[in-house]
Amino acid sequence: MTFATVYTKHFPDELVGAVRTALIITSIVGIVIGVIAILWPGPTIVVLAILFAISLIIAGIFRIYQAFAASFLSTGVRVMLGIVGAIVLLAGVIALFSPGDAVWLLAVFIGIGWIFQGVADLYAAITKSGHAPTWFLIISGVIAIIAGIVMMVLPAFSLEVLAWVGGIMLVALSIATLLTLPKKVEQPVAGEPAV
Fold first, then answer.
1. Mean pLDDT value across the chain
2. Residue 97: which pLDDT band, with cuts at 50, 70 and 90?
3. How far apart are the first and last CA of the chain?
4. How far apart, in whole angstroms, are the C-alpha atoms of residue 142 and residue 63?
């Protein structure tokens, strides 16, 4: 049974058409964005870094709001939320108005995240608490830590490689989506019996 067959058996005809249209549009947009990321990784990274800066600003404002609004929390926790919120907000504002800083900040956040993930994988391997084979957790942990360090030491190069890989994957997935669209439901011609 193919993916398209599942759609036609479980969804009304109008919905299959709407799903096809949505998949075609998102696939075309995905191909365009993927090609842009492959051909112009530098500007793509700057746009991502600016979006990251905006998300930092929103997160900082939310933390500051929590510090004032969460009256059920202790004063110490609320002060800490306020301080963290102010730092995150300040980092977001600086990154928003300085794209170079935004790119560096994005690389540092990604690098730190990968290092933490690598340490968590190694810990799971050592304590045998993971749901994956131990050898896999060790390899995954070491690769994540190395990738995190490289991301923080060579941020511009690392982000460009990430943009290329992301662009290639986006184009490939978008093409695969176009090749596996649900089949159109044939409407019977007036006067002919439906099959």
1. 83
2. confident
3. 20
4. 33
Q: Domain boundaries in the chain?
A: 12-179
pTM over 0.85: no
**CA-to-CA distance for 67 and 63, rounded, in angstroms?**
6
Give the chain's length: 195
Measured N-to-C along each axis, helices 3-10 and 13-39 cross at an angle, to the nearest 10 degrees, of 140
Q: Could you read off the pLDDT of 137-153 as tens digits, one per residue?
A: 899 999 999 999 998 89
Helix, strand, coil % in the chain, rounded to nearest 5: 85, 0, 15
CA angle 176, 180, 186 (to 5 degrees): 150
Q: List C-alpha distances in Å: 153 to 75, 76, 133, 156, 157.
A: 38, 35, 30, 9, 9
Residue 185 pLDDT level (bands cut at 50, 70, 90): low
Residue 128 has pLDDT above 50, yes or no: yes
Using DSSP's 3-state secondary structure scheme, residue 181 falls into coil
Decide: 156 and 10 in contact? Cβ < 8 Å: no
Judge whether 121 and 140 are in contact, CB under 8 Å.
Answer: yes
- Give the integer Cα–Cα distance in Å for 96 and 90: 10
CB atoms within 10 A of CB 63: 19
